[in-house]
């Protein structure tokens, strides 16, 4: 296992009776990256995460975490935020954070110091002595995130990390995750929010019906699905441009006009023709690359 690799999964499979939840998955997660784990509901994401964390045992295949098969000591180097949230509602914030930090092997003084630092970053320091149940849903979500990363894990696995957060608090959590990524921490993010994946993730794995469908760098996957076309906004007779075969309304999630190019034409050719003519005004010009959400829907529909 490479020293820069946090997780290596080789040919894992898991069945529940006659149902094959995970079928021959192979992938790796690198240190210093945000890795998105995607798939429809029931695709096998949660089962895969539980096998990585040794909550479930695979029926076949091997998993290495932080350099070897997972052990109890390895688990102390992992932060896990499950989709099912839950903190003791009647306990003060700082007390529950210190308690959970000590369970991860932190001395009490260190747990208290780091808890207050995190609460300050999350703009919750003034609520440290309040009981969990007295906080809003969004505040409780931020506390869940804080206890997940309190012990400064080398690997973080988070399921729907932005659930229940408003746009401002989403930015706060994003900034912390990107900072951790830049400090060499491996982050596995399972989410249905494709726009967050496009913005944050370096690489991704999409599974459906337990099998790998897409795997690789997010930008590379989107480019694989790109059309030989461009999207423009502005004014002019787009059909008159040399190299444009057809013009239609953009069926992408964004507005604009889709210019389908002739096989020998390039986007540079079209841009040059627009620049050379006073009859065109351009506000937007980009390659017709579908969003990850569109690719996700297409892949799932193709499997039906």
Spell out the blueprint of helices and strands:
Blueprint: E1 5-16, E2 19-30, E3 34-38, H1 45-52, E4 60-65, H2 72-75, E5 78-81, H3 93-103, H4 108-121, H5 137-149, E6 155-159, H6 167-182, E7 186-190, H7 194-200, E8 203-208, E9 211-217, H8 218-224, E10 229-235, E11 244-249, E12 257-261, H9 267-276, E13 281-287, H10 292-302
Parallel strand pairs: 3-7, 3-8, 5-6, 6-7
Antiparallel strand pairs: 1-2, 1-4, 8-9, 10-12, 10-13, 11-12
CATH superfamily of the largest domain: P-loop containing nucleotide triphosphate hydrolases
**Residue share in helices?**
25-40%
- Write down the overall mean pLDDT: 92
How is the CATH topology of the largest domain named?
Rossmann fold
Alpha carbon gap, first and last residue: 37 Å
Report the CATH C-level class of the largest domain. Alpha Beta
Number of strands: 13
Sheet with most strands? 6 strands, mixed
Q: Over all CA atoms, what is the radius of gyration? A: 23 Å
Spans of 5+ residues with little confidence (pLDDT < 50)? none
């Amino acid at each position: 296992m490479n020293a820069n690799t946090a997780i290596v999964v080789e040919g894992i499979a898991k069945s529940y009776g006659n149902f094959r939840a995970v079928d021959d998955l192979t992938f790796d997660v690198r240190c210093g990256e945000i890795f998105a784990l995607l798939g429809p509901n029931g695709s096998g994401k949660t089962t895969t995460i539980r096998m990585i964390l040794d909550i479930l045992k695979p029926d076949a295949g091997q998993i290495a975490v932080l350099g070897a098969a997972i052990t109890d000591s390895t688990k102390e180097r992992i932060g896990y935020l499950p989709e099912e949230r839950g903190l003791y509602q009647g306990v003060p914030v700082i007390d529950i954070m210190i308690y959970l930090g000590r369970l991860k092997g932190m001395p009490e003084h260190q747990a208290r110091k780091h808890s207050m630092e995190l609460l300050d970053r999350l703009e919750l320091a003034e609520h440290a002595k309040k009981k969990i149940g007295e906080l809003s849903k969004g505040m409780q979500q931020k506390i869940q995130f804080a206890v997940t990363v309190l012990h400064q894990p080398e690997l973080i696995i988070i399921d729907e990390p932005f659930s229940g957060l408003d746009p401002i608090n989403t930015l706060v959590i994003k900034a912390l995750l990107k900072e951790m990524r830049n400090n060499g921490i491996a982050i596995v993010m399972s989410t249905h929010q494709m726009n967050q994946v496009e913005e944050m993730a370096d690489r991704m794995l999409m599974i459906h019906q337990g099998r790998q469908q897409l795997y690789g760098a997010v930008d590379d996957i989107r480019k694989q699905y790109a059309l030989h076309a461009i999207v423009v906004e502005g004014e002019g007779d787009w059909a008159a441009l040399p190299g444009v075969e057809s013009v239609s309304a953009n069926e992408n999630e964004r507005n604009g006009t889709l210019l389908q190019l002739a096989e020998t034409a390039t986007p540079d050719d079209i841009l040059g023709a627009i620049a050379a003519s006073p009859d065109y005004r351009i506000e937007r010009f980009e390659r017709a690359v579908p969003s990850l959400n569109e690719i996700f829907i297409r892949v799932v529909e193709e499997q039906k």
